[in-house]
Design goal:
about 625 residues, alpha+beta, Glutamine Phosphoribosylpyrophosphate, subunit 1, domain 1, Rossmann fold, 6-stranded antiparallel sheet, 19 strands, globular
Length: about 625
């Protein structure tokens, strides 16, 4: 795993100062502590920071072809590089290293952009073709690895793995994008289709940019998509067998490394499944690690220990204090943009623990998105059945009235919180799901933001991207549409960003076998009843793992990495909650609303813990600019 950065002049090829590229790569040193390199020519400069994983001695970058006509900097891993290498050797390609990076050089020469569909991996890379004066930027299918870019005033394009790499370049302006701020308060993260720094873009997942000298900056081109329109045929037994084969292949393909390798183990279905297949394939005990909390309601370490014992793992766990909020400043610095998924704290802590003994760790991320594991999918599925029966003209008057009349009961058990269900049924499916995945609803944001800030949004509304994604999804069923939107928006913007930044902050490579594109494509063809049945998500995956994993792991209620932010803001961080009213000084927020949010939460009248966490992380991100 690595960090990459560079500059390319689209117009007249002006000299590139290597020191400018070094500034950008130095800001990414945490992504690659094992080495660094810079290559420059007239009008172009490529920089790299290396975390050595494969071919420790021969994989230095920037890597040049033998004739020095192709240069590449690469962040990620190509899991099938040996197969691609053999295919290229059959065409006459001669390799000088055992690195997966070199297949990009030879693959470009043989296939050009058509190289990408042949790759199974997580990657973001920049490749410069000297003869054609062309820079090729590409990103993996699901967006596991990040890549940011920006057009500068001098006609050049700057790119970097993380925003901090771009901001190290003094030519990058630090003007904030109000629409991205709206997006952050809607979802708790800045989605992948925008950036909170005006002008900066993130190359979308499964896309590439082909920059040619003398031509304007093009739009990214999509090279892969997941298709939910097809349905797998076969018996449950057939699909179960195929599921097991695909799970096994996804895990074993990610066990190739020339450095110590282990796994995150929460004790949930997903990470336990990964560890089960790792143990099956390994001749040595799998090294696993788990983080727990000193609050019994949030601690899963006993389940992780159960799985570790079952598969004879070399297991370590560590308990983190529930008042670990002192680490929030450190975590905020990892993301560059405001990021309010509070589980980032726990993900960073488990990455720290893993890095003490391994350089690569496999995780269970992605299964909820591809196999419909989130509870919100169950609610969406049920609500869509009601919408299919009750005409739209009746739903708003009936359910809208009930939603307005029903009391808001944040304190009550989930089954008694009918207000949100009534409100959802009054809306269309896309609109309702956009709200379900959000943090701060549109109506609350309207009271939170000042009038001048709302005017600066020019009609932009964060939820519209979800509605559009679901409307345009290659899908047959409302569940397909919800999952597709999550794969395009939630997964790269929140989950994968969280894992990438927190693991890379400690120079750990995290791999997500459950996001193997072959497994994703298979999951998208499963009939709805194979994903969601009887209110149980991940139905076929759990059935497949029966006997391998115990039932108390397969069918217990999902906990996840929960950070008790609501309790913090009623206790040790109550003063911090009140102090956040100072954000009104930016001119973007209503002071009276900020004050009321804090006081109502502290008094227990409302649960505003997530909104207060958003405000706190936004303030910390502002302070870093």
């Amino acid at each position: 795993m690595c960090g990459i950065a560079g500059l390319f002049h689209l117009g007249t090829p002006k000299p590139v100062d290597p020191a400018r590229v070094v500034l950008m790569t130095d800001a990414l040193a945490h992504r690659g502590p094992d080495g660094s390199g810079v290559w420059t020519a007239q009008g172009v400069g490529l920089g790299h920071r290396r975390l050595s994983i494969i071919d420790l001695g021969g994989g230095a970058q920037p890597m040049l072809s033998a004739d020095e006509q192709v240069v590449v900097v690469f962040n990620g891993e190509i899991y099938n590089f040996a197969d691609v290498r053999r295919e290229l050797q059959a065409t006459g390609a001669q390799f000088r290293t055992d690195s997966d990076t070199e297949v990009l050089i030879h693959g470009w020469r043989v296939w050009g952009p058509d190289l990408l569909p042949r790759l199974n991996g997580m990657f973001a890379f920049a490749l410069f073709d000297v003869a054609r004066q062309m820079l090729f930027l590409a990103r993996d299918r699901l967006g596991v690895k990040p890549l940011h870019y920006v057009a500068l005033a001098d006609g050049s394009i700057a790119f970097a793995s993380e925003l901090k790499g771009l901001l190290a370049n003094p030519a990058v302006r630090r003007e904030l994008n109000p629409q991205a701020i709206e997006d952050f308060f809607a979802f708790g993260y800045v989605p992948d289709d925008t950036c909170w720094i005006e002008g900066v873009q993130k190359l979308p997942a499964a896309s590439f940019l082909l920059l040619e000298r003398g031509k304007p900056l093009p739009a990214p081109r999509v090279w892969w998509d997941v298709d939910f329109t097809q349905r797998a045929k076969g018996t449950v037994a057939d699909l179960e067998a195929e599921m097991r084969d695909r799970l096994r292949a996804a895990v074993t393909s990610r066990m190739v490394a020339d450095v110590p390798l282990g796994a995150f183990l929460s004790g949930g279905v997903d990470s336990s499944s990964v560890v089960a297949f790792m143990a099956e394939a390994s001749s040595h005990p799998v090294q696993t690690c788990a983080i727990g909390f000193d609050s019994a309601a949030h601690d899963e370490t006993r389940y992780a220990a159960e799985i570790a014992k079952r598969f004879a793992c070399d297991h370590r766990s560590r308990i983190v204090a529930s008042d670990d909020y002192a680490a929030a400043d450190t975590v905020a610095r990892m993301f560059d943009e405001p990021f309010a998924d509070a589980s980032a704290l726990a993900t960073w802590r488990v990455s720290q623990l893993a890095r003490e003994t391994v350089t690569v760790a496999l995780s269970g991320d992605g299964a909820d998105e591809i196999f419909a594991g989130y509870r919100r999918y169950k609610f969406q599925h049920t609500e869509e059945r009601v919408r299919s029966i009750v005409p739209q003209g009746w739903r708003e008057p009936v359910f809208g009235s009930l939603a307005r009349a029903y009391p808001k009961a944040d304190w009550a058990p989930q089954m008694f919180r009918a207000k949100s269900t009534f409100a959802a049924l009054a809306l269309g499916g896309g609109e309702a799901y956009a709200r379900a995945v959000g943090v701060t609803p549109f109506e609350e944001r309207a009271g939170l933001f000042s009038d001048s800030f709302k005017r600066s949004l020019q009609g932009h509304r964060a939820e519209d991207r979800y509605v559009a994604a679901m409307q345009n999804a290659p899908a047959r069923d409302p569940l397909d549409r919800a999952q597709y939107a999550d794969l395009k928006i939630w997964l790269p913007g929140d989950i994968l960003t969280k894992v990438d930044r927190t693991s890379m902050a400690v120079s750990l490579e995290a791999r997500e076998p459950l996001l193997d594109h072959r497994l994703v494509e298979f999951a998208a063809t499963l009939p709805v009843s194979m994903r969601l049945r009887g209110g149980e998500g991940k139905w076929l995956m759990k059935r497949t793992m029966r006997g391998t994993l115990p039932d108390d792991i397969l069918y217990r209620r999902k906990m996840g990495f929960v950070t008790p932010v609501s309790a913090w803001f009623r206790g040790p961080l109550a003063g911090e909650a009140r102090r956040l009213a100072g954000l009104a000084d930016t001119g973007w927020f209503e002071r009276t609303t900020l004050e009321r949010v804090a006081e109502d939460h502290i008094a227990g009248k409302r649960d505003h813990g997530r909104l207060l966490w958003q405000l706190a992380m936004f303030e910390k991100a502002l302070a870093l600019l």
